[in-house]
Hints:
Removes the phosphate from trehalose 6-phosphate to produce free trehalose. Keywords: Hydrolase. This is Trehalose 6-phosphate phosphatase. Pathway: Glycan biosynthesis; trehalose biosynthesis. The chain is an alpha/beta fold. It has 13 helices and 15 strands. The protein has helices at 4-7, 51-59, 62-68, 74-90, 98-105, 134-137, 145-150, 153-173, 184-191, 232-246, 283-293, 314-323, 347-357; strands spanning 12-16, 23-25, 31-33, 37-38, 109-114, 176-179, 197-200, 205-207, 224-225, 253-256, 261-265, 270-277, 302-308, 327-331, 342-344. The chain has an 8-stranded mixed sheet with strand order 9-8-7-6-5-13-14-15, with helices on both faces. A hairpin with a 4-residue loop joins strand 11 (261-265) and strand 12.
Amino acid sequence: MVSVAEMRKQNVIVTEELALSRVMAAGGDSAFLGGIVFNCKIASQLEILNSGWLDSLRASSPTRVKAAGTAISSSFAARQDQEYENWVMQHPSALRNFGDIVAGSKGKRIVMFLDYDGTLSPIVDDPDRAFMSDAVRRHRRPLSAFTLFHSNVKNHFFFFSQMREAVRNVARHFPTAIVSGRRRDKVYNFVQLRELYYAGSHGMDIKGPSKGTKRTRSKNKALFFQPASQFLPVIHEVYEKLVEKTSSIPGSRIENNTFTLSVHFRCIDEKVLEVRPTIKWDKGKALEFLLESLGFANCSNVFPVYIGDDNTDEDAFRVLHEREQGVGILVSKVQKKTTASFSLRDPTEVMEFLHRLVE
Length: 359
C-alpha cells in the first residue's frame, strides 16, 4: 500500500474534524492519522475504513452515546458562561453594536454572504428537513423569533418561513450569497430564492442568477464555476465505498455534497470526517471569486458582511480581515477561536440582524 507521505501528494484527502484523534497504524508502510488518504488513481482498490477506525465509529454511535450519558456540573456550566461573557467582550454582539456596523458601511456597497446550517437554519436531527419551502411560507403566524426557535418542532416551520422572508428582503437591497458545505442544489431546494448566489461544497460549486441586477456591477448573463470538476469521478468512487463500509454502523450517515463527502451523526451533532479535493479552494476563495464576479474586486467602497458558524467559515473571516473590508460575524453560544469581528448567538439573532439591515 502507498505510504501516507506519497498519498498526500495525490488528489483527494480525508481529514478528521472532530471525533477521531489518535494515530492508527495499518501495518507495513501505511499509517492513518484519524482518517484515510486516498490516491486518486487507486481509490477503488484501497481499503477505505480499517477495522480500528470502524470500531471507533461504532463506539461513538448514538445508541452507545445515549447509554453512557453525560453530566455537566453547575460549576462547570457557570465557568462556561463566564468564559463566554469574556469572549463576547472580544467579539461583541452584532446586534448591540449594529450602529457601529452601519456606520462602517456608510457610503459603501454592502454584499451579504451567509452560511446555511447553524446560521440561517437551526441544526436539526434530520439534515434533509432543514428547508424553507413554499408550503411553509404560506403560514403567517406572528410569533417572535424567540418563540419560534425555542418552542416545538412544528413552530420551526414558521421560523423557516420568516427567515426565508428575511433573506429575500436582504437580497432585494444587496447582492446576497449563501456559502455552504452542502451540495448547491440541495441548499437551493431548501431556500428556493432565484435571486441569490449559491456556493455549495465549501465554495467549490458556484452558481448565480441568470441575469445581473442593478445592485451589481457585473453584466454576466450567468455565473457558473466549479474549480474542482475534474475530481468528480474519484469523489463518486469514494462515496460508494464509504456507503458500503459504514452500512452496519447505527446512526451513521454519508452525505454526498458533490465535491465533498462527510460522515457524521447529525443526531448528536458530531461530524466525524470529511473527504474533499486537495485544491487550494475554500469559502474565503469563494468570497473573493464572488466579489470579483459581482464587479467589486478592486473596489474600496465595498462592504462585505459574512455570517457563519462553522470552522470552515474562518477562511472567509480571514479574507475580510486581510482585506480590511467589511465584517465577519460568528454565530455561536460558546467561545471559539475566531477571526470574526462580531458575534451572534443563534439563527434567531441572525434573523433579527437581517431584518434590521433593511429597516
